[in-house]
């Protein structure tokens, strides 16, 4: 008898399950279908928007500013999130399945090219008028993206240990590294992550080409070779100096790289202004550190580029685009929005109507370089998709691991993997 | 002589288990350290056991909402998987024809497909269902549960299949002669005999669904819907990881499954006991 | 009449699951196969060009793909052996009368409770920093060096981490299997004077065949599909020496944006692996002892 009862129990459980699976679960309707409506105050309430962006570090602050936006205007927005290295894939998935978002972020160059069919043409919007010269994301002459802000990189150095005048060219660079090696200090640290190992440092010889986009194009077509280009040959010598005088970068992670630098075990790191957020966890570095150019072929410019760009999803409906425009307009023109960009996000502004906030020493250096125009472009944005992590980094690993591979052979290897990847 | 060797065995087992757990030790101790301490020595015990990073992690993760979401998604998915997979597996075992062999082999074979290659077309199918059948498959818990059931069914059927085979068929035949419907036979006779494997299926699925990141990350977007693993994304920047909060978040994530595992384990032991009595 | 009724029951019992399964797994899989004949970057608005078998021809010329397949095979063989030996050993230990068995059972299973990439990062730290430190302080730098920078040892490291994660999982299934073995059989053998080894090889192991089938298959499929551990431990490095199949395909689809080529790789690999593992399932299933 007991068994019979149990059977009934299970049966009813099954029915409930089936109901949940087929009816209740799938019966709830979507809430986002409401279009613009009017709230009690008589002010028009815009459609709720969704925002998806790649800089995890600002997500929480973005959520906060969205709250303020709702308080000030009554309009709503939802901030989505993805772990740092997962953003691109997720964005592609969300767009493929028509889930939105209304506003998303995209890198300049190859990445923007890939997603360009989704961009809304912002050329006539109010907020693009204040974008600093050459900073807007443009595709086919149309403005499609507003920059987050500016970021830059070069050699971050400890002022107590390094005199910038001793790092001016290959010769002095090598001597400085040699000197540190003799003292038991790591002269320059790269680290194992693809961008920090090769992606950033190789930008310099590209950026020094008269027309780097044209050069990359030719490289893709096999018309030129890095191993036959002057700047790259010099780059190879720099890499040889690094290989022979400093600790193997493959043994170093970004965390240890900055830790070693903060504790005086490393004199220089090839890094950008973003690394200050890591350094500040070790104490106050106030004016003890600086940022100087990577002196390839006597280069005296920092590499400076746009961190990322805000774009609007052009495939969304008109109400949603309208609401998205309203948000960006608020972010870049209202006092609250502007102050958030510089004080909370701590971006170096790329807008003429926004004053820089309190900058850390590294960002200060980048900001100064931007103002004086002593900057190199971020050519690596235009590399073929995925090449840094999947081709250049393995080649660099081979170079740093094999005892007798020379810089010249490294260049040939780079040419070889580039040819394969750009096919 | 025998006693000492037993004792040695006990000690050996314990030592092995402790070594086995050293990575977990690292997770826990580093959830109490700031970046400078972590850099100094990742193996050392923390200088202070303040729960500051736990508090921060819980706040960022919206912990209690997230745990509710995770519980709902995991429990409902696992229940449905158990009910549907046990029924299917039983039918497949007891129906000896080509079709059931083909179905079984298909279910098994699809377990070999890496999820990464399915996710894009999966999203397209779900989008198609959403736009054409008006069922909210995306950005809802129920849609995620539906997909969880689909992905878990292969393994669950496979597990049940193996164990149902070892159940004597006589009892079922006797019940059928007594006038039980197939439904009755299954739920009254067969399913109760599957308790051990059901618990195993439940444990394995609870764990994998509780920890799942990739599928929920594709389907759940709104903050209020996020499960626990999804909520930990705040700690993972493109290059930097906020280690202490990430480790604290991870520790918090696994506590519920550890408790669940310990509870479920008791039932397995009970299962042994009742098996011995019978 | 009865036959028709049986068919109806069959449909009633299997349809709900098969329906869900078809929409979630089979349909996407079929679409995936269809895409393998197309050149496309994965962005819906961008053109899809039908290229016939081009993708398949291309992938056989892709040395990196072929070597990633080879790494996967090497990894799988090592991982399947180590996971099952360890899992079986654990399960035998924790079903004895040892006092620590309950604690041990929980501890052995623990690694499985933790998902995600972060464990990979912890292990990365162990192989990089802790091993370096051990090498320096013990002088055994032939064993303790940075394993992740050596092409051979980096693969072993992934095997170790995978084993560590999955052995407890198979342990559970072996335990369930061990519990299914009637005590009377073992007792009877004891009375007959069979020693531990005999009882194990003549009674326990043969009766464990169903559990063995399951564990072998689960570890095989898990190992073939490995991605998370691969990504967080080595990212395929050094110099692509540990790049495995799932990572190669993921990069083809999402990093390079060659969706069709990536799907073609998936199809080929699936066919090879399925042929291989299904043979295994059929073979071990035949050996299962029928009551």
From TrEMBL, chain B:
InterPro entries recorded: MetI-like, MetI-like_sf
* Annotated membrane topology: Multi-pass membrane protein
Source domain of life = Bacteria
Transmembrane stretches in the record are: 7-28, 71-93, 102-123, 143-164, 185-210, 241-264
Q: What positions does the domain ABC transmembrane type-1 occupy?
A: 67-264
Q: Which UniProt keywords apply?
A: Cell membrane, Membrane, Transmembrane, Transmembrane helix, Transport
Q: Where in the cell is it found?
A: Cell membrane
Signal peptide positions on this chain: none
Major subcellular site = membrane
What family is reported?
Belongs to the binding-protein-dependent transport system permease family.
Q: What name has this protein been given in UniProt?
A: Carbohydrate ABC transporter permease
Give the organism the record lists. Answer: Paenibacillus profundus
From TrEMBL, chain C:
UniProt feature coiled coil, ranges: none
Q: Which UniProt keywords apply?
A: Cell membrane, Membrane, Transmembrane, Transmembrane helix, Transport
Instruction: List the PROSITE patterns.
Output: ABC_TM1
Question: Which Pfam families is this protein grouped with?
Answer: BPD_transp_1
Transport among keywords: yes
Chief site of localization: membrane
The membrane topology noted for this protein in its Swiss-Prot or TrEMBL record is: Multi-pass membrane protein
Q: Please give the start and end residues of each transmembrane region.
A: 12-38, 75-95, 107-133, 153-176, 207-227, 266-283
Question: Where in the cell does this protein reside?
Answer: Cell membrane
Name recorded for this polypeptide: Sugar ABC transporter permease
Where does this protein come from, organism-wise?
Answer: Paenibacillus profundus
């Amino acid at each position: 008898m007991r068994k019979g009862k149990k059977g009934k129990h299970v049966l009813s459980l099954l029915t409930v399950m089936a109901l949940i699976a087929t009816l209740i679960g799938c019966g709830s309707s979507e809430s986002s279908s409401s279009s613009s409506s009017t709230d009690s105050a008589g002010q028009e309430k815009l459609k709720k928007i969704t925002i998806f962006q790649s800089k995890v570090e600002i997500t929480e602050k973005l959520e906060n500013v969205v709250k303020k936006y709702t308080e000030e205007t009554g309009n709503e927005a939802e901030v989505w999130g993805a772990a740092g290295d997962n953003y691109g894939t997720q964005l592609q998935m969300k767009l493929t399945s028509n889930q939105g978002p209304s506003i998303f972020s995209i890198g300049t160059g190859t990445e923007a090219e890939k997603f360009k069919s989704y961009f809304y043409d912002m050329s006539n919007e109010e907020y693009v008028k204040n974008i600093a010269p050459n900073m807007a994301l443009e595709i086919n002459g149309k403005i499609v993206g507003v920059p987050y802000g500016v970021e830059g990189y070069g050699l971050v150095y400890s002022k107590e240990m390094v005199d910038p005048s001793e790092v001016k060219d290959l010769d002095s660079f090598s001597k400085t590294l040699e000197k540190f090696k003799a003292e038991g200090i790591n002269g320059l640290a790269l680290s194992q992550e693809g961008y920090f190992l090769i992606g950033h440092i190789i930008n310099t010889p590209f950026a020094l080409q008269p027309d780097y986009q044209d050069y990359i194009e030719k490289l893709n077509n096999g018309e030129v070779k890095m191993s036959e280009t002057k700047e790259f040959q010099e780059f190879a010598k720099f890499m040889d100096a690094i290989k022979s005088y400093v600790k193997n970068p493959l043994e170093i992670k970004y965390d240890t790289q900055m830790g070693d630098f903060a504790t005086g075990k490393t004199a220089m790191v090839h890094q950008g202004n973003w690394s200050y957020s890591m350094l500040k966890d070790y104490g106050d570095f106030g004016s003890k550190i600086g940022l100087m150019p990577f002196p390839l072929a006597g280069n005296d410019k920092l590499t400076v580029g746009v961190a990322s760009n805000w774009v609007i999803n052009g495939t969304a409906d008109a109400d949603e685009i309208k609401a998205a425009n309203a948000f960006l307009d608020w972010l870049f023109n209202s006092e609250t929005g502007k102050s958030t960009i510089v004080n909370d996000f701590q971006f170096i502004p790329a807008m003429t109507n926004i004053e820089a906030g309190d900058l850390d020493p590294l960002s200060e250096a980048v900001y100064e370089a931007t103002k004086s125009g002593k900057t190199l472009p971020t050519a690596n944005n235009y590399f073929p998709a995925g090449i840094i992590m999947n081709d250049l980094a393995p080649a660099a690993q081979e170079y740093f691991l094999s005892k007798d591979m020379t810089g010249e052979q490294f260049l040939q290897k780079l040419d070889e993997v580039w040819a394969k990847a750009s096919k | 002589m025998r006693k000492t060797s037993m004792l040695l065995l006990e000690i050996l087992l314990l030592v092995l288990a402790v070594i086995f757990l050293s990575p977990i030790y690292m997770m826990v101790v580093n959830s109490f350290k700031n970046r400078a301490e972590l850099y100094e020595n990742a193996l050392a015990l923390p200088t202070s056991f303040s729960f500051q990073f736990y508090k921060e992690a819980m706040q960022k993760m919206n912990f209690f909402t997230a745990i509710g979401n995770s519980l709902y998604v995991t429990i409902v998915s696992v229940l449905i998987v158990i009910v549907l997979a046990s029924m299917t597996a039983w039918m497949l075992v007891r129906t000896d024809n080509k079709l059931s062999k083909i179905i079984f082999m298909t279910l098994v074979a699809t377990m070999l497909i890496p999820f990464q290659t399915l996710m894009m077309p999966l999203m397209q199918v779900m989008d198609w269902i959403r736009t054409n059948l008006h069922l909210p498959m995306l950005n809802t818990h129920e849609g995620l549960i539906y997909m969880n059931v689909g992905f878990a069914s292969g393994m669950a059927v496979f597990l049940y299949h193996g164990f149902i085979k070892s159940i004597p068929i006589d009892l079922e035949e006797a019940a059928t002669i007594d006038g039980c419907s197939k439904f009755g036979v299954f739920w009254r006779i067969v399913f109760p005999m599957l308790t051990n494997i059901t618990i195993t299926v439940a444990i394995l699925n609870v764990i994998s669904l509780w920890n799942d990141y990739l599928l929920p990350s594709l389907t759940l977007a709104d903050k209020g819907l996020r499960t626990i693993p999804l909520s930990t994304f705040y700690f993972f920047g493109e290059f930097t990881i906020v280690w202490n909060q990430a480790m604290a978040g991870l520790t918090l994530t696994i506590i519920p499954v550890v408790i669940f595992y310990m509870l479920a384990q008791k039932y397995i032991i009970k299962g042994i006991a009742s098996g011995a009595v019978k | 009449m009865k036959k028709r009724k049986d068919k109806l029951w069959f449909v009633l019992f299997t349809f709900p699951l098969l329906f869900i399964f078809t929409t979630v797994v089979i349909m996407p899989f079929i679409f995936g196969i269809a895409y393998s004949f197309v050149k496309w970057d994965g962005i819906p608005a961008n053109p899809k060009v039908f290229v016939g078998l081009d993708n398949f021809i291309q992938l056989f010329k892709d040395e990196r793909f072929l070597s990633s397949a080879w790494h996967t095979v090497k990894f799988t063989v090592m991982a399947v052996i180590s996971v099952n030996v360890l899992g079986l050993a654990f399960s035998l230990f924790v079903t004895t009368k040892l006092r620590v068995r309950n604690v041990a059972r929980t501890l052995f299973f623990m690694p499985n409770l933790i998902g995600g990439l972060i464990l990979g990062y912890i292990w990365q730290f162990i192989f990089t920093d802790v091993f370096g430190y051990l090498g320096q302080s013990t002088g055994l730098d032939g064993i303790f060096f940075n394993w992740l920078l050596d092409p051979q040892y980096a693969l072993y490291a992934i095997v170790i981490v995978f084993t560590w994660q999955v052995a407890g999982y198979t342990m559970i299934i072996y335990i369930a299997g061990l519990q299914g073995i009637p005590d009377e059989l073992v007792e009877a053998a004891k009375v007959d004077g069979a020693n531990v080894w005999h009882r194990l090889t003549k009674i326990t192991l043969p009766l464990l065949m169903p559990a063995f089938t399951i564990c072998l298959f689960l570890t095989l499929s898990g190992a073939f599909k490995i991605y998370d551990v691969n990504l967080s431990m080595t990212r395929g490095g050094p110099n692509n020496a540990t790049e495995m199949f799932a990572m190669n395909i993921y990069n083809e689809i999402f990093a390079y944006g060659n969706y069709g080529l990536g799907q073609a790789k998936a199809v080929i690999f699936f066919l090879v692996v399925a042929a291989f593992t299904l043979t295994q399932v059929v073979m071990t299933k035949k050996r299962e002892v029928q009551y």
